[in-house]
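Chapter summary example.
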Amino acid sequence: MSTENTSPTPDQPTPPAVTPAAPVTPASAATPPASGANAPKPGGPAPYAGKGPPRPGAPRPSGPGGPNRGGPNRGGDRPNRSDKPYNPGGAPQQLYVGSTKPNARELDKLIEDELAQAMGDFDVSKTVAAVETVQKPRAAGTVGGGKKTGVIVGVHGNDVFVEVPGGRSQGVLPLQQFEGRKPVVGEAVEFDIDHYDSADGLLILTREGSTQIVHDWSQVAYGMIVEARVTGTNKNKTGLTVEVAGIKGFLPASQLDLYRVENIDQFVNQRLKVMVAEVNPEERNLIVSRRAVQEKEKQAKAEEFWKNVSEGQVLKGIVRSIKPFGAFVDLGGADGLIPASEFSWQRVNDLSEFVKIGQQVEVKINRIDFDARKIGLSMKQLTVSPFEEYAKQVQAGARVTGKVTRIADFGAFVELTPGVEGLIHVSELSTQRVRRVRDVIEEGQTVIVEILSMDATTRRIALSLKKIASEEEAAAEAAEQAEHEADLKAAEEAMANRPVNPNLRGGIGSVIKFDKP
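The structure predicted for these 517 residues follows.
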């Protein structure tokens, strides 16, 4: 039965139209010749035209071995090799068309020129300086910004109101930061801006080195200066127990003062200005230091001290320590040394006889070493030199009485008057050779010496025992000679005046004479 001219029934679907098959042509004839990157390589295989991943919904072609296996198109989601970009081969593309490739030096210069042109007026040094000056996060309560100077416009209760220059609002300082005194209206005060209180519309100010007000653990921070009340000492006497706004803390004895404190009980019930050295709110641990505050204040005073100090100044200081070679004195901004020889014009054997630790003394600056920051002090320079007074009364050639105070290998020192000593050199001790000074003279012996010379510049006096001894020996010899001559003369006179015996006969009858030696 032929079905070519039969029409489909309503129950049968309409078959698709049959399209006559196109004639099969070679791939080279069906695909136009490629150019550029897609051009086939001479002598190579022709590109696989018309092949690619199947479109969604299209049937996948099958090859030998089942669907999606083998054949020119392996099917699936994997692309065919023909879909990859074709590399025609040959030399790489030239980057510098119409010119030669620059060498390394020219390329570096081109890059530097382009970089300089791009940077323009950009200042690297200013940017680096700005980055380096970025402030680190500061603890709560510390001062921020620079110092300013304002005028006090009012004092109300515990608040001091200050007119801030250039500001739209006033600032307030705690009265506690004036350390016990009440400022007056119109007084100039130096301060730093801590923060802005938006609730009251005021600038919260603070003074450098002044105590900060805290109320709880959240306001206590490392490096903050606060006021602590000493409540007692610990069991081992190694420190003090303190309270900062009701917060219990500890002040070690080593952090109590710049110098050693023997009796720490004297600070009980006192209010001290301290710095927070360690704080841990979780463990309720608070350690403060009074020494850190003193060191900071001393450093500030030192800068001012070294600007104005000069030789010859007379200052007052506190004796901080005594050593065998001298005593150290705190001058307020620096420490100076009084050598043992500068305490008195007299010889000093024990420094404790002149000064005590903690004693206030008046000293004169003898020398200053600005590089090493060392200062030499003197106490005896403030008194009249006894040498000058003695030199007015006694001249060279005079013979005076003194007491031997010290013996050395080269001679002996003799105190002529309090504060004035002279030296008897070993060559001036005796007319004979002296091997040891102690063979001729001893300490504590009173001697009569002759002044050979006096030097007002060096304050040195040369004495001599030899000259007096030689004169005494000459006088003794002269006396002995005179005595011998007197004896001879007396013998001659006795022989001449003797009575004549008439019974004697013979002889020449002349007077007997004795020959002188």
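To summarize the output: The first helix runs from residue 27 to 30.
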